[in-house]
Amino acid sequence: MNTQEPGITITLREIYDSVQTVSDALERMEGKFASLEEKSLSAIKAERQSQEALQVAQEAYKLAEDAHTQLLKERSDKEEQRSWFKRTIIAAMIPYLVSAGLLAISYLSNQ
Q1: How high is the pLDDT of residue 2?
Q2: pLDDT tens-place string over residues 75-87
Q3: What whole-number distance in Å separates Cα of residue 9 and Cα of residue 59?
Q4: How many other C-beta atoms can be found within 10 angstroms of the C-beta atom of residue 86?
Q5: Lowest mean pLDDT, pick from 58-62, 68-72, 106-110
Q6: What average pLDDT score do residues 92-106 get?
């Protein structure tokens, strides 16, 4: 009783070759996944460093703004001091000028 059933006959060699092909593909995929994992870790590390650099830059910017504000305040204070000094000198000279003027008028009127 040798009956043939309709269908496809697959030999052990074909099965072995197919398994080897799948095995090779899995090894390549494993290598690619390992590379992808490594790149992902590297990207995560770079993102952390980027965040740290951003924080440092923001702190530096804030310090620069504070320094600029302080500089403007000091300039304003210095200008105010100069103005005060000029007014004080003028206010101190007015009595002497008035006295000198009165003395000159009195001297000229007596002659």
Answers
A1: 56
A2: 999 999 999 999 9
A3: 74
A4: 10
A5: 106-110
A6: 90
| Nearest Cα residue to 91 out of 79, 102, 101, 83 | 83
pLDDT mean over 54-62:
98
3-class SS string, the chain: CCCCCCCCCCCHHHHHHHHHHHHHHHHHHHHHHHHHHHHHHHHHHHHHHHHHHHHHHHHHHHHHHHHHHHHHHHHHHHHHHHHHHHHHHHHHHHHHHHHHHHHHHHHHHHC
The first and second tokens of residue 65, run together, are: 């703004």
Residue type for position 15: I
